[in-house]
């Protein structure tokens, strides 16, 4: 892989976050009411669900991470803008970097969103994890757009 240092750094960042959240979820499990708020409108809960819903986002996070990881392994299978023989290696490397960022940041986004839901369910402050989830989601959306504009400006 051409982006080993980036991938290693993201593993170092995301693994403790996932482990902390799993520990926190099991540690607080007995304090979580059986019915929790799962949707809010204007800061007020308007939809309720079982506390077992808190297991869905970590599972979705891991599945998403795995599926995007499959795409990362073969960057030459992706669609490219202005791909030529002269720039294909740099395009593949940049696309791989973008996909690795989306893979790890997307997974951590789900974890932070779930941490916010968990904290809200037990009456703790949930603003920071929710804000982190929003920031990471923005990174996941901005990164491919930036890459698309970068690729469009390539000459050869």
UniProtKB/TrEMBL annotation:
The chain crosses the membrane at residues 7-29, 49-72, 98-118, 130-152. Keywords: Membrane, Transmembrane, Transmembrane helix. This is Uncharacterized protein DUF1648. Residues 25-61 form the DUF1648 domain. Pfam families: DUF1648. It comes from the Bacteria. InterPro entries: DUF1648.
């Amino acid at each position: 892989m051409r982006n080993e240092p980036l991938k290693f750094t993201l593993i170092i960042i995301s693994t403790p976050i996932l482990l902390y959240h799993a520990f926190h979820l099991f540690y607080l499990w007995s304090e979580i009411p059986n019915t929790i708020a799962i949707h809010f409108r204007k800061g007020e809960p308007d939809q309720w669900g079982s506390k077992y819903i808190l297991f869905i986002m970590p599972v979705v996070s891991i599945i998403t991470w795995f599926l995007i990881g499959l795409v990362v392994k073969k960057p030459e299978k992706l669609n490219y803008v202005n791909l030529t023989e002269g720039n294909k290696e740099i395009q593949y490397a940049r696309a791989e970097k973008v996909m690795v960022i989306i893979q790890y940041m997307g997974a951590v986004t789900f974890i932070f969103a779930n941490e916010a839901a968990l904290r809200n369910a037990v009456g703790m402050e949930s603003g920071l994890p929710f804000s982190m989830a929003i920031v990471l989601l923005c990174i996941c959306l901005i990164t491919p757009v930036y890459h698309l504009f970068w690729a469009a400006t390539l000459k050869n």
